[in-house]
Design a protein that fits this description.
Elements: H1 25-33, H2 42-65, H3 73-86, E1 90-93, E2 98-103, E3 106-111, E4 116-117, H4 121-125, H5 130-138, H6 153-160, E5 204-206, E6 215-217, H7 257-264, H8 267-270, H9 300-320, E7 325-328, E8 335-338, E9 345-348, E10 365-367
Antiparallel strand pairs: 1-2, 2-3, 3-4, 5-6, 7-8, 7-10, 8-9
Helix pairs in contact: 2-6, 3-5
């Protein structure tokens, strides 16, 4: 934990400000209000924020000035919520102007003179808790009079009464003497200009639709380490330290247990069909394109012969699988078998056969069973 609990825990808050808020909601609200202004130039941005605050002050002043209630609208909702909970408690008064509030085995001490409760909520927030409201109602007193004056309507109206002053436009601005101050030259940076706020490492970030919708922890702000020297603050691409020569790791001859169990079991036990891969250059099933003999320049004639044989078999297979029975190609002498409901397979690869019947060479014949 980087911060001590007294900086963010509600139990350590001071009772002077009369505020129980421990989040940064006011910063997030302000940041959302100036989204359309923060991308402008400096003077235009300040002018836009000034006009926004001027309109907001007038709106809040009129809304609260016409409010007949002693408390602000949101404070009234919180008080009514605490009143509903206060009905579940039973209060008993003592001789020293204190009350004992209980609900079952849970009990609290309420001091109306000091405006405090043993739960601590009243002293920190300035609003009577449900225990204090139970004691105030037991003594037949007004609950609104025990609310801190910072939440009264006329106090908030006085805060908005000052408002934002008005100014003339640029045509009335005085001209400064001396050399004109010009803005710095803008250099076109690569990529699309960024307008969103830079989020910290602990904040959640919503990914685009292409990467899935959801909240994920951002990697920005995290401490990175170099893959070469192991130092912090840079990566291997920007590392300036000398290259560290590492000893090559010896590959273990023993297989993992999962692979050993898979290799020891037959194909029928695993329930998976073995997939045979072929070379993308010559089409052989004994190697891949990286270890193909064509890369080394040896065995080219044999490889080409295998390619021709495979292409011939594929061409004849398309003809042999049209019917049912034994198919013999009289040109190459290859034999194929096609059963009912099964795929065709090669029975024997023979030599080219020439059959001469009355001076002519007949086409391939299909023998049906």
């Amino acid at each position: 934990m980087d911060q001590e609990p007294r900086y963010f825990c509600r139990a350590f808050l001071s009772p002077i400000p009369k505020c129980d808020s421990v989040e940064s909601n006011i910063c997030e609200t302000w940041n959302g209000s100036i989204i359309k202004y923060r991308g402008m130039r400096l003077i235009d941005m300040l002018e836009g924020i000034r006009v926004y605050l001027m309109d907001r002050f007038v709106l809040k002043y009129k809304m609260l000035y016409d409010n007949p209630d002693q408390l602000c609208p949101r404070i009234r909702k919180r008080i009514e919520k605490e009143k509903a909970l206060a009905r579940l408690y039973t209060s008993r008064q003592t001789l020293d102007d204190k009350c004992e509030v209980k609900m079952g085995s849970r009990g609290y001490i309420v001091d109306l003179n000091n405006r405090s409760c043993s739960c601590g909520y009243w002293a920190v927030s300035g609003l009577p808790c449900c225990h204090a409201i139970s004691a105030i109602s037991h003594l037949r007193k007004d609950v609104d009079s025990y609310v801190s004056q910072w939440y009264w309507t006329h106090v908030v109206v006085d805060a908005y009464k000052v408002g934002i002053p008005c100014f003339d436009g640029r045509q009335a601005w005085p001209e400064a003497s001396g050399y004109p101050v010009l803005p710095p030259k803008q250099r076109a940076m690569p990529g699309r200009p960024k307008k969103n706020r830079r989020k910290a490492a602990h904040e959640f970030e919503v990914r685009p639709q292409a990467h899935g919708v959801g909240e994920e922890v951002s990697k920005r702000g995290t401490l990175i380490h170099c893959g070469k020297c192991g130092a912090e603050g840079h990566n291997a691409r920007t590392c300036k330290s000398p290259t560290v020569v590492e000893t090559p790791r010896t590959r273990s001859r023993t297989l993992p247990r999962s692979r050993e169990a898979t290799q020891q079991q037959p194909a029928s036990a695993t329930g998976k069909r073995t997939r045979v891969s072929h070379c993308s250059k010559c089409g052989s099933a004994t190697h891949n394109a990286r270890t193909c003999p064509l890369n080394q320049g040896v065995g080219i004639q044999q490889v080409r012969l295998n390619v021709d044989v495979r292409r011939t078999i594929e061409r004849e297979m398309r003809v042999a699988t049209r019917g049912i029975g034994v198919y013999v190609d009289e040109t190459t002498g290859n034999q194929y078998v096609k059963l009912n409901g099964a795929r065709g397979r090669v029975v024997d690869v023979g030599q080219p056969t020439v059959v001469d019947v009355q001076g002519s060479q007949p086409p391939a014949t299909q023998l049906e069973t």
